[in-house]
Write a structure and sequence with these properties.
This protein has about 270 residues and is mainly beta. The chain contains three helices and 16 strands. It has one domain: Porin (Beta Barrel). The longest helix has 13 residues.
Length: about 270
């Protein structure tokens, strides 16, 4: 019974339009993402794709505590253009009796070294099984990045600042999420990240951090930490152009490991 209770506590945290950080690279680095330049920042901080100059497509899967009912499935597409980077994202969390779906349209653009901006318009649908129906909402997320030096990047991101209502009962709202962080390339191929997150559904501020070491820009080893619940993480990736494959696992302090995997094609 204790395990079941903990699972449903975790479900309540990620339910209602609030998706975890997407991408196995990010998961392996403690789910830190806001200051990284990476394909999956289509979903985590849209400013982080403004410098990407190749078409890309990716898929991601996470099974929280190895339970299909708590799985997250994601797909994304990215297209650089003369006016900026365009993207399309899709997320699905849950199973037939409860699920969240999010579809996003992304636009990102760089305004020189000191400013990159990304915006995503979201359609979110929450569905309850057994004829309870579904509820759809529209919201947005916006991100910023700045290279304050050649090796240090600052990032900031906010999701759903208007806190759209998900249900009239008990005035239930989709949470707003705020993240701020830094990425430091200590030496070529060795990156350290740290960031803070405030979720309006969760009282304490969460601090996350991670390390990534790249070997010849082909093989990557990662580790990370968090101050709340998901205390440790680890990951591995390899890049054999045009394909990048990443795997990771995040350890919850009470419920054990959650595995992740992602695959990216860049053309």
């Amino acid at each position: 019974m204790l395990l079941v209770s903990l699972v449903f506590i975790n479900l309540s945290i990620y339910a209602g339009g609030d998706f975890p950080v997407i991408g196995s690279r990010q998961a392996g680095m403690g789910r830190s993402s806001v200051a990284l330049t990476d394909f999956w920042n289509l979903q985590n901080n849209q400013a982080g794709v403004a410098l990407l100059d190749k078409f890309g497509a990716g898929i991601y899967y996470e099974s929280q505590f190895s339970m299909n009912q708590l799985s997250t499935k994601s797909a994304a597409f990215l297209a650089p253009t003369k006016i900026g980077v365009l993207g399309l994202t899709f997320n699905y969390f849950g199973y037939s009796l409860y699920n969240d779906m999010k579809i996003g349209l992304v636009y990102a653009r760089s305004f020189g070294q000191y400013l990159r901006v990304g915006l995503q318009l979201d359609y979110i649908q929450t569905t309850l099984g057994d004829d309870y129906g579904s509820k759809g909402n529209v919201t947005f997320e916006i991100g910023l990045q700045s290279d304050i030096t050649e090796n240090i990047t600052l990032g900031a991101w906010v999701y759903n600042p208007i806190q759209v209502k998900i249900a009239d009962y008990d005035n239930e709202k989709i949470p707003a999420i705020f993240r701020f962080g830094i990425a430091w390339e200590i030496t070529k191929g060795f990156i350290a990240t740290v960031e803070t997150e405030k979720n309006t559904n969760i009282q304490p501020i969460v601090i996350r951090g991670g390390l990534e070491y790249g070997l010849k820009e082909k093989f990557f080893f990662r580790g990370g930490f968090s101050t709340q619940e998901e205390i440790l993480s680890m990951g591995f990736g390899f890049n054999l152009k045009p394909v990048r494959f990443d795997i990771s696992a995040v350890m919850h302090e009470s419920l054990g490991f959650s595995p992740q995997a992602s695959l990216i094609f860049q053309f």
